[in-house]
Amino acid sequence: MWGRIVFVFFILSLPVCHGLWIGPVSAATRELAPAVSPRPQARITTEVRPARWDHVPGSTAWSRAALKALRSHASNLPDIVPRDIETWCPAYKHAPRPEREAFWVGLLSTLSKHESTWRPNAVGGGGLWYGLLQILPSTAEYRKCRATTPSQLMNGPANLACGLRIMSVTVARDQVVSAGFRGVAADWGPFHSQRKREDMMRWMRRQDYCAGLYTSPRPVARPVIDPLVWQARHRPEALLPPRPLYATRPVARRITP
Predict the structure, then answer these.
(1) Predicted structure pTM score
(2) Which pLDDT value is given to residue 109?
């Protein structure tokens, strides 16, 4: 008991506890404090999640370009919960932002399978559509994409950035991924084919970020434990009365007749 009391008084006697001043801070001391804390800030994760194009050389750059777009001109997409999202990604509605970003990157990767078989230099429609997502130059210009020419749209990252710019408008307008051939389906033909649409849905639903099975490998901050609790947990003998040297079991008395 005395050890616990001494420990408490020792803690209270310290001028600083866990980085917080116990006593008042003078004006001169406050002037010396930095305007911005030098403590390192947590970085925004740029973890590249599984995509359907992962086997294609150079596809990591495509995933990173899509993430960059989702954090700039298409940043509204992860905030939207489309009405038909259950058919595409059951875990999306209650998922944190990184999981939602992974969904949109995954959707691009499975859509580009049916549009271009992951060939950034693909040209379709007799010279009408270009790149991974087979974008029409006039559509890119109308949606104010940076890539508007055939050669620019055949650059993988630029093509995906343009595709997400288009989706950020149509999904926000229609509040669906593909229901009623609106949302993303308003501009991309594979959503109009039941076979291709179901293939894309199956692949999306198998992903951890859509099944709700993914756990981030990023370390979790340890909980702060009260010093007295720690002492009681790791040194319980310090808080218990001393053990007797001999057994305290009463000895049987001899009964004299």
Answers:
(1) 0.68
(2) 99
